[in-house]
Design goal:
single chain; about 210 residues; mainly alpha; flat
């Protein structure tokens, strides 16, 4: 397999890894609709950060990190589930001002989205599965190939979130305030439910 093929596969994996429905997607949709493309894209980049870290672990086979995640899955699920529930609850309580202002890129949104992504132990498992499915065994590749493959993966993920946040923001401009409130509540409930599922899984693991 050529080096270019590995890099192209990395780009495709970045897009595929970003697609599954989860709290990062829900937050990105909500922020894109209520606060504009830049705010939504900031949330999406949090998901890109998670995918990139998981890809580095997968590509370089850092077994210690994988073992740590496996050994502390219950704690991650409980703590992460609680955090995601709090984010969802706060989003549900928030109200959209009558005069909506387009917000700029938000480090706060980025950190929230990244934290939610890292709170899900399945994120690493999904990336490992994608690397196996696409045959991303880089053991015989030059050292620069895995690096460029990871960069391509991050680029693919970021491009996906850029397109999603832009499209949703444009769609949001056509909605009235009542519809925007409904979208905000639905997204918040979705995030809260996801956090609840993680929390329940963690509690069940303790029993």
């Amino acid at each position: 397999m050529t080096s270019l093929t590995f890099i192209l596969k990395g780009f495709i994996i970045g897009i595929v890894a970003a697609i599954p429905v989860g709290p990062v997607l829900m937050m990105t949709l909500q922020k894109s609709v209520t606060d504009g493309r830049k705010a939504g894209f900031s949330s999406g980049l949090g998901g890109t950060a998670v995918d990139t870290v998981c890809a580095i672990v997968s590509a370089f086979a850092i077994s210690g990190i994988g073992s740590f995640v496996d050994a502390h899955t219950t704690v991650i699920e409980i703590v992460g589930g609680l955090f995601i529930m709090v984010v969802g609850f706060n989003m549900f309580r928030s109200r959209i001002p009558k005069e909506r202002r387009r917000k700029s890129y938000s480090p706060k949104n980025f950190i929230k989205a990244a934290t939610m992504g890292f709170s899900n132990p399945a994120a690493l498992a999904v990336m490992l599965a994608l690397f196996a499915t696409f045959g991303m065994d880089m053991g015989n590749q030059p050292a620069w190939v895995p690096v460029l493959a990871i960069v391509a993966l991050a680029t693919g993920s970021a491009l996906y979130w850029f397109c999603v946040s832009g499209a949703v923001a444009r769609l949001g401009d056509r909605f009235n305030l009542k519809v925007l409130h409904i979208i905000n509540k639905v997204a918040a409930i979705g995030i809260f439910i996801f956090g609840t599922i993680l929390l329940v899984k963690g509690i069940i693991s303790l029993l």
